[in-house]
Amino acid sequence: MEGAWEIAFVFFQVWLSVIVGLIMLPAMFGVSLGFTDIYIKVLVKILEWATLRIQRGQKEQPTLPSQSANGIIEKDDGSMEEEIGELRRSHPKNLAGGDFTLCDAFYFCKKGIENIVEDQVTQRFTSEELASWNLLTRTNNNFCYISLRLTIIWGLGVFIRYCILLPLRITLAVIGLSWLVIGTTLVGLLPSSNVKNWLSDLVHITCYRICARGLSATIHYHNKENRPKKGGICVANHTSPIDIVILANDGCYAMVGQVHGGLMGVIQRSIVRSCPHVWFERSEMKDRHAVAKRLKDHIADKNKLPILIFPEGTCINNTSVMMFKKGSFEIGGTIYPVAIKYDPQFGDAFWNSAKYNMVSYLLRMMTSWAIVCNVWYLPPMTRQDGEDAVQFANRVKSAIAHQGGLVDLSWDGGLKREKVKESLKEEQQKMYSSMIVGSDFFEASVGPA
Amino acid sequence: MGSRASSLLREEDIEEIKKETGFSHSQITRLYSRFHSLDKGENGALSREDFQRIPELAINPLGDRIINAFFPEGEDQVNFRGFMRTLAHFRPVEDNEKNKDPTSGEPLNSRANKLLFAFRLYDLDRDDKISRDELLQVLRMMVGVNISDEQLGSIADRTIQEADTNGDMSISFSEFTKVLEKVDVEQKMSIRFLH
Q1: Roughly what angle, to the nearest 10 degrees, separates helices B149-163 and A422-446?
Q2: Number of Cβ within a 10 Å radius of residue A448
Q3: More confident residue, B103 or A364
């Protein structure tokens, strides 16, 4: 009996020293030992082999449905005027005037059916479909047995991910978060000074680095010269809560958000002790002027860290950028846009909050292969003369979408939960009315025929 | 996205749908994935609310009429078979289908059936006639508040005058077909499905 306990104890000691020595210490100094790189390289080779094997399997068994990441249909991109104009061309011209024809309905009908089969918005709120299976059960759409070797590798993958990587990652996450809470509380006891700021930055970055290791995150930063500076506002596209860890690995930011209870609340309260973050009570969030004022005050102080804001307001699945809420663009100050693009091959980072709660989401993250992403820092932007907040927001959004290779949509991310505004339908009706009224209006003013 | 969706669709069902609608095997499985993702209640059928959740459809002036076309008279749930049957109207017309054996009945995506689909968008009470009142209602859906009642009324009158050949002040399906005989219905009421 005692022997078993001793062995367990030794094992535990070895485990801890591995973690501290090989992961925590390098994280503190920002040094990488290269294990993750080797891991990723091996993974890439295995996934490439798996893709080829699946493609070969599909050729041999033609009844297997092939996964294609293309859409279901091919759409025409004509405008309302073009399409209805074409429809009417084949219809005998109505000499009495009045531009309505019965075939106008065809346009709306076809558009409607196209949108039922495939639309631009609802697909953004579920995970992206992969072009080829990446050996994770969860991305498995049409599992059909292909070969023994593939199944063995998949089984091995399950074992490695759940029995080796998961405990490792959970340990790291726990250590990272507790260090964050303890470290920032300790730093918070110091009087305000440059030393305090420097220590606060160090504690924050170390903890985020440990958390990043806890997800096997490989992040490539591009254009570091454009990194957000103090007194500015950093805006980025939002895919998951992990975005914060990704960005905070390379710089220190002031977070903005609602006050939460529970574990999140504990973390929020302790990190605000060491450096100013902006936390709002639920009631304060309704008052847009109060919110704007607090943010304005924050960026006016050039000693405070740049604010990190996600103007989409909700998580999108990283295939597109949706409407940016204009609030952050009305405050003034320099905007530092950042584009984040995850590589879905190694793990899907999107948080589908309708389907998974935070804990299941984190577990899924920690049992993926890895999180691989690219972060591009874009040159700073400011509002130009004659440009209102909405136009400015759209300009920033286009820049981010262009850099990240994402689709630029003007639809509101809030459509995840809410209905679309009536005014958009009214716009469509207005556009159509102007196509009918034209000559008819003239006819009416001339008098009855 | 639809992780186990395709396994809920049996091969026999796929074969039957294939025969009835003319869609290919892979098109059917992809459309089933889509059906499944729209079915938020996960009960194997879509309600009108499920369709309304598509923003681009919700802002379509004729959105409600199009959604209505999926639901048989008096019902408010549509299953996958019904869904596919309605979508089948929008398959492009292929030449080899004209050679199909005539006993199988007219395919769902024939020119006549496409025109019938459009006719039914206007025919609100399903009595096989488009009355002046029905035409006015549909016009009102399309233009919103932007055109006055009188103007809309004269547009409706003119349209009926133009199409009505038997003097009953309403448009029957054959009159509808005659008025639109020069319109390229096959192309305008078809969607290019990818394989």
Answers
A1: 70
A2: 6
A3: A364
B105 torsion bin: left (phi>0), alpha (psi -120 to 50), beta (else):
left
Tell me the per-residue pLDDT of A192-220, one tens digit each, with 9 for 90 and over.
Answer: 888 888 888 888 988 898 888 888 888 99
Contacts of A86 in chain B (CB under 8 A): 188
Per the CB < 8 A criterion, the answer to whether A396 and A381 are in contact is: yes
Question: Which secondary structure element, helix H or strand E, spans residue B130, and what is its range?
Answer: strand B129-130
- Decide: B31 and B21 in contact? Cβ < 8 Å: no
CATH match of A148-416 with 3.40.50: no
Residues of chain B found within 8 Å of residue A105, distances taken between Cβ atoms: 62, 118, 121-122, 138, 142
Q: Which of B69, B84, B62 is nearest to B137 (CA)?
A: B62
Task: Classify each residue of A389-404 as buried b or exposed e, where b means 16 or more C-beta atoms within 10 Å of its C-beta.
Answer: beebbbbbbebbbebb
Residue to test with chain A: of B147, B175, B192, most A Cβ within 10 A: B147
Neighbours of A105 (CB within 10 A): 25
In order of their start, the domains of chain B are: 12-89 (1.10.238.10), 108-190 (1.10.238.10)
> Which residue in B51, B144, B189 is closest to A429 by CB distance?
B144
- CA–CA separation, A76 and B46 (whole Å): 27
pLDDT value at position A446?
42
Q: How many residues does chain B have?
A: 195
How, if at all, do strands B129-130 and B171-172 pair? Answer: antiparallel
pTM: 0.84
Best to test chain B binding among A99, A113, A144 (most B CBs inside 10 Å): A113
Residue A387: left if φ>0, alpha if ψ -120 to 50, beta else—which one? beta
In this model, does residue A361 exceed pLDDT 50? yes
User: Measured between alpha carbons, how far is residue B121 from residues A109, B6, B63, B127, B139 in Å?
Assistant: 9, 32, 10, 12, 11
Please give the ipTM for the structure prediction.
Answer: 0.92
The answer to whether the CB of B6 falls within 8 A of the CB of B27 is no
**Spatial contact of B37 and A126, defined as CB atoms under 8 Å apart:** yes
Taking an 8 Å cut-off on Cβ atoms, the answer to whether B30 and A72 are in contact is yes
Tens-digit pLDDT profile for residues A393-441: 999 999 999 999 999 999 998 888 888 888 999 999 998 888 887 644 4
- Residues of chain B positioned with their CB less than 8 A from the CB of A66: 26
